[in-house]
Amino acid sequence: MKEISQPGKPEKNTDAKKPTANLLLNIIIFLLIVVVGFLSFSIISKIKNNSHKVVLPESKSVPSAIIQLEVLNGCGVSGAAEKITDFLRNNHVDVVQMKNYISFDIEKSLVIDRTGNRANAEKIADILGIDRKNIIQQVNSDYFLDVSLVIGKDYNQLKSNIK
């Protein structure tokens, strides 16, 4: 015969698998918390370690055999970039691009090192007679050239104009 439960008394239908399932779920939750904690710690420690590292490009003291250069007109004088480009090409410099600079208010011509090899920029400055104080370094791996030359309003004093 089937027992009829009395009101107010809980049924005796206990499942033996219930405590085992709860234990298994608790273990899985604990392991997931440990994994998330480990990954969080790992990410935070990598961010902290990388924030203190400054990667400086390797500075070379010998100019490249072929220097690739862009000429940027920063003085606004028509034909200045073409004249300097011709002069540089006659001095065995590979001028790969010639265009206007973002501004025509540049007083002194600038030589910009793009690869971390300052010797390339110094060679270009020496060819044109630009003071080495006007060499700056802006390393950018997106550029596929060694040096950028920004022609300033002092373009008449450059060696390309001296006969």
Kindly describe this structure.
The protein is an alpha/beta fold. Helices cover 35% and strands 15% of the residues. A five-stranded mixed beta sheet has the order 2-1-5-3-4, covered by helices on one side. The protein has three helices and five strands, in the order H-E-H-E-E-H-E-E. The longest helix is centred in the N-terminal third of the chain and has 35 residues, at 17-51. The chain has two domains: 16-54; 68-161, 2-Layer Sandwich (Alpha-Beta Plaits), CATH 3.30.70. The radius of gyration is 35 Å and the shape is rod-shaped.
Mean pLDDT: 84
> In the CATH hierarchy, what is the class of the largest domain?
Alpha Beta
Strand-residue proportion: 15-25%
| Terminal CA distance | 123 Å
Give the structural class. Answer: alpha/beta
Total count of strands: 5
Give Rg in angstroms.
Answer: 35 Å
Low-confidence stretches: none
Principal-axes shape call: rod-shaped
**The number of domains:** 2
The third-level CATH topology of the largest domain is Alpha-Beta Plaits
User: Mind describing the biggest β-sheet?
Assistant: 5 strands, mixed
How much helicity do the residues have?
25-40%
Q: Strand sequence of the main sheet, in spatial order? A: 2-1-5-3-4
- The total of helices stands at 3
